[in-house]
Amino acid sequence: MDTLVIVLRVALSLGVVLALMWVLHRRVSKGQLGRPKARGRRAASVEVVGRTGIGGKASVVVVDVEGERLVLGVSEHGVALLTSGQAPAPEPELAIVTSADRFRAELEQQDDPATILPVGAAETAEVTASLPMRPRNRRPQRTFVPTNRQLHGSILSADTWRQAAAALRDRRAG
């Protein structure tokens, strides 16, 4: 009779623990526990612009949040707002020359037979005209080959390896 009561108590306790875990799992997955998930509106976009350590566990972080730039002081004790302001406008991206633009430029060059250049030569000529010419290898390549006297006693010396092999042979023979 006592064992039946103990088994029922263990089964009931296990059921209660499993039910509690199931309820907590459901709440966490729905976002009801802790911070709620964004519903109905877009979540705030946060971008870390930069971070600089100023001590052991302290740093300054620059963050952009929905068009506002925040400078935060972060330490082991918490986060403090140092200053805030309007985030700068994003810089315009560089125009990328597509292969269609190159093809069009080459077609225009082919109209005039005096200016026929190899494929891609027009871009190369423009770039090289704007860059100063410098020699590629300013220093001559120096190759250093150590002599046997300089390697004497080092692991790179052939004599060291011969001596080690001879010592091993003497130990085996003796």
UniProtKB/TrEMBL annotation:
Keywords: Cell membrane, Cell projection, Cilium, Flagellum, Membrane, Transmembrane, Transmembrane helix. InterPro entries: Flagellar_biosynth_FliO. It is found in: Cell membrane. It comes from the Bacteria. The keyword Membrane applies. The chain crosses the membrane at residues 6-25. This is Flagellar biosynthetic protein FliO. It comes from Curtobacterium citreum.
